[in-house]
């Protein structure tokens, strides 16, 4: 009767939701606007907790046991160091890359203007019998002044459109700052009280759910956190190592834009599987404008470093942190990219890893219930009677 009542209530709610779909959608949007700052704060706390916990363990592990004052100050200091580290990385990108990028864009304009005549002469020599291609080639022109005027007009149109929506932009800015302030405050509260919150959450689950279900759900949450944290840590460290490798190698080979290309590849390498190749394409184009020979050399260097990184560095740095076979990594990147873009690529790998781990445990559990020890391509190995008795004894002791 209880299940029938629950089914009737669920059916009634579903009918009302479909009948008043616009109203339900409006209510859901309102609820989302209310809880979004807290969800954002939880995401900020999750991302910040990874480096903060690392610094807290590394710097204050021994001192926390010996001094109570250090124990109280260890977390605020670790959080402050994490913020300083993030701001430092952003400042390095802004003051180190943006000026060079500006100079690069100016050099690129000049390089394009110089490159087009050379390209036209190459095409004439290669397609000297095809007059139509030669005519199309002769029509290619690049006027630097015209390109500058086009860029200024584009910025002017953007500024004009921005001025037309100034009031709404100011309102959105104030709302965004308010949301960000609430999210940061909530994230700081989570980080400072995470042990206490963890105990409270456990109490709630064990109070309202059966013990076995609550324990299973909390284990899934713990597995999810470990998987995401290991993946983010490994991916960021791997991107930094790869970027440094390119900066050092390109500087030794005296190639142009060494710092810019290294930082670009480091950032794009955060995108699993395909990211570094995006940086390779942009870097090849930048170098090709100055020297096609060096561009070919850069591609060779990229392939060599990519093989070293993929076969030696990545397995040790990221390795089995997500516990997902390569074919499923590719599937997660493809599906996540199609659904949510770059964010989907980053989220779906650890998310699919969690589901893969849970499903694998589920399969092994059912195999154990069937008294199957191992399945190979040619045979099925079953547990002996002694092993079955030992397993049942362990399960009885665990239940008691």
Give an overview of the whole structure.
The protein is mostly helical. It is built from 13 helices and two strands; from the N terminus they run ααααααααααααββα. It has helices spanning 2-19, 21-66, 68-126, 131-138, 144-164, 166-192, 194-208, 211-252, 258-268, 275-290, 292-317, 326-369, 385-399; strands at residues 372-375, 380-382. Strands 1-2 form a two-stranded antiparallel ribbon. Helix 8 (211-252) runs antiparallel to helix 12 (326-369). The longest helix is centred in the first third of the chain and has 59 residues, at 68-126. The two termini are 32 Å apart. It holds the Pfam family AI-2E_transport. It is found in: Cell membrane. This is AI-2E family transporter. Its main location: membrane. InterPro entries: AI-2E-like.
Task: Please give a handful of descriptors for the protein shown.
mainly alpha, 2% strand, 400 residues
Nearest-integer average pLDDT: 75
> Major sheet: order of its strands?
1-2
Distance between the termini: 32 Å
Low-confidence stretches: 162-167
**What Rg, in angstroms, do the CA atoms define?**
29 Å
Shape: extended
Number of strands: 2
Would you list the SSEs in sequence order as H and E?
HHHHHHHHHHHHEEH
* SS class: mainly alpha
Question: How much strand?
Answer: under 5%
- Annotation field: number of helices: 13
Helix content: over 70%
Largest sheet composition: 2 strands, antiparallel
Task: Set down the secondary structure blueprint.
Blueprint: H1 2-19, H2 21-66, H3 68-126, H4 131-138, H5 144-164, H6 166-192, H7 194-208, H8 211-252, H9 258-268, H10 275-290, H11 292-317, H12 326-369, E1 372-375, E2 380-382, H13 385-399
Antiparallel strand pairs: 1-2
